[in-house]
Amino acid sequence: MSSFPPEDWDVRPLADMNTMAACPRQGAEHSLQALLAVGPADGLEGSFRFALTGTNHVTMRVPVQRILADKRFGGMTIELQLQLGTQIKLSKNATTTDWVDVIELVQSQDAEVLDKAGKAVNEEFLRAMQEYQNAHPDREVGISWRWALTVHLKEIALVVQALPCTLDAINASDILKSDGALGINVGYFALDYDRYRPTVSLIYILR
Length: 207
Prior knowledge:
By secondary structure, the chain is mainly beta. It has one domain (about 25-205). It contains three helices and eleven strands; from the N terminus they run E-E-E-E-E-E-H-E-H-E-E-H-E-E. It has helices at about 100-105, 120-135, 165-170; strands at about 10-15, 30-40, 45-55, 55-65, 75-85, 100, 110-115, 145-150, 155-165, 185-190, 200-205. The strands form three sheets. A four-stranded mixed sheet has the order 1-11-2-3, with no helix packed on it. A four-stranded antiparallel sheet has the order 6-8-9-10. A three-stranded antiparallel sheet has the order 4-5-7, with no helix packed on it. The radius of gyration is 20 Å and the shape is elongated. The model is unreliable at about 195-200 (pLDDT under 50).
């Protein structure tokens, strides 16, 4: 009978479950690893976490009108750069990150809004957003998004999910803030998989 865990599995202490970053794979710009908690009887005890790391930044460019179909936002694109593993962190027992208020990102200059010519128009965007919100006083309109880990056509990827509402509205809804809630897919970043040099692998955590 074969031993458990197999010799080719990486075994770490359970204390690393919440803090461990993915180990960079040789020659890969990014890595994704699944951390699974294993009980004393060699069975999965139910906790998991997907760890990310990367030497490259992920650049997001999202046309505002893909989220809010209003002429005020014509030609505007939200742009920001994020680091895998430090700024994109998947929650424990979830395949998604926390939701983020995009308007706050623009206000803090962590994200930039560009026009068709590539000129920064943050102030114009914020004014247009205020006008849009004033025109819809009965709705908590805004822009929020998060990252979600998906598998599509055998390709593992991070997808940016957006909703045209405020972060407060999402946090007030158990459905919207749940791991399985749907959103508007506005960004896609493939995590390449090469069986000879995998960027996706498993680490099993023992009690």
